[in-house]
Amino acid sequence: MDKETGRCVIIGGSIAGTLAAAAAATVFKSVLVLDRDKLEASVEVLKQPNTSFESLSEEARQHRSVQQGLQMHGLLAGGGAAFERLLPGFKQQCINSGAKYMADDVQVGKQISMAFGRQQMVQMPCPEGYSLLLATRVLFERCARATLLEQNENVRFCSSHKVEDLLYDEASGSVRGVRLASGEELPAEFVVDTTGGRSHAVVKFLEEKCGQKVNFVKFDVGLNYHTRFFKMPEKVLQMPQSERVHFSMCAPRAPDTDSGLVMMVEGNMYQALVSRMNRQKCGSSVDDFLAVLKGLPVQGPYNAVKDAEAIGPSFDYLGAQGTVRHFYEHCNMPESYVVLGDALAHLNPRFGSGMSAASFQAEMLRDQLAEAAAAARARSPNAALTSADLRGYSNKVQQQAAKAVELPYTLVRDGDLQYDFCTGPRSSSSIQSFMGAYINAIQDLLPRSPEVASTWMTVSAFLKPPSHLFKPVVMRKVLAHLLAQQWSATSTVMRLCMLAASMLLSVVLLKGVRATRIQ
After folding, report:
1. Is 499:506 a contact under the CB 8 Å cutoff?
2. Residues 79 and 356 sit within 8 Å (Cβ to Cβ)
3. Closest residue by Cα to residue 363 from 12, 17, 19
4. Are residues 374 and 434 located together in one domain of the fold?
5. H-helix or E-strand containing 457?
6. What's the rounded Cα separation, in Å, for the pair 477 and 458?
7. Together in a domain, 410 and 450
8. Counting CB atoms within 10 angstroms of each CB, which of 277, 337, 345, 515 has the fewest?
9. How many domains is the chain partitioned into structurally?
10. In the structure, what pLDDT confidence band is assigned to residue 384 with cuts at 50, 70 and 90?
C-alpha cells in the first residue's frame, strides 16, 4: 500500500530501533527514530569504512547509551537472514565496511574453532546454510542505519532527542505520541519502544497510567566481561584467508566460569573477550588478560593473540544486567504502543544472540503492520492506515513478539541455569533435569561426532528449532552416551539388571515392529 499513513515514532536508534524502523517504513508515511545520543545520519558518511581503533572508540563513546558499544558482535545465520529480509544489501554493506563473513564453505577446526569446556568441536565442514558475520557493534549500527536511510526516504533519525514521557489519552486508552525532555510534543499514530534503559519507565507507565502489572523474571550469573583490541600480526596478514583463524571460542561448562573469545574485525584487528561469572574480575593489564585466556581448558583464543600487540585499554563491563524477560504479552497494552528489543528481553551478552532476537521481533512487527494495512485496503482500496485500523494490534504484536523471542531467550536462560549460583526462578521438573543432562551429553559428543556437532551448530545459529536436537541420528548417539555413563557408574548387580531391562525392551520393540509389518 502507499506510504500515506501518518507518523510512526521509534524510541531508540540502536539495532532494535533501526530494524523496527525498517518494518514500519513499509506502511507509514513518516518514521521518526528518536535517540538521546548524537548519531551520524549521513548515508555518504555512514558508508565510508571506519576502521581505526581511535575512530571506533570515539563513535562508541558518542552512542553512550549502548553499553556494549565496544564489545564484539557476531551475527548468526538465522539472524543474518532476517536482517537481509528487512534491509536488503545489509550484509554486503558490512563486508564493504570491513566485516568478516564466513559461510558454509569454511572449516570448523580451521577458520572457526569452537570448544565447550574441554570439548573441542570435531574438524568438519560447516553445516549447510551456516554463516557468521563478525564486526564491532559500531560497524553493525553504521551499516544498518546506512542501508535503512538509503532505501527509505520516509525515515529520519533525530539525534539528541531524549523521550521524557508518552502522550497517553485515557479516554481512548491509547498512546498518541511522545513528549521530549525539551518539552516538545510529537504526535504519532504508532509508537515502538526499543530502549532497554527505559524498561523501568515503561513498567511504571503501564502500572500507573494503564493499571497493568508487568511481571518479569531475571536470571543473573554475576557476569563481568572485558574486551581488548589487538593488532593482527604481520605473519597472519601474510596468510591466505583460508589459513587464518577468524573465530576462536572456548565457552564454559559448569562448574567452569571463565570463557574466552577472539575474532577478526575490521581494520586488521582482533577483538578479544574474557568473561567471568560469579562476580570475578580480570585485572586491568594485558598480562592479566592473557593469563585468563591461557588458563582456559582449550588454548585456541590464547594462541590467536599471544604474540599480537594490544591496542588501547581494556573495556570493562562489570555487573552486566543478566537475562531479564518482561511479560508484556500478559498485559492489556494501550493502543498504538508496543515494546520490543531489550525493553522486552535483555539477554545475557555472552551468548551473542541479541541482534538475532531483535531481527526476529522486527520481522514479526513488519508482518503485523502489513496485515493491518491489508485489512484497511480490503475495506476501501484507497484507504490509508490509521490508528483506528491498528486497534487491537498492540496486544497482537506483544503476543507475537513473545513467540519471536522465545527461542533465543530459552537458550540463554537454560545456559544461565547450568550454574548453582545463578539467581532466578528454577523449575524442579524432571523434564528440565533431563534436558540439562541431554545438552551436556551433546557437548560431550562434539569432539567426535560430526552429526551431533553439525546439528548443534544449526540450532545455535537459529537455523533450526531446538526440536532438531532430537532427530533420530542425534538422539541415538546421546542416549547411548548417557547409558554408557550410567553403566560405568553402577555396580555389577545393577549392570545385570540394566542389561536384562534393555533386552526385554528390545524384544518388545521387535515384536511391535513385526506386528506392524504383518498388518
Report:
1. no
2. yes
3. 19
4. no
5. helix 450-460
6. 17
7. no
8. 515
9. 2
10. low
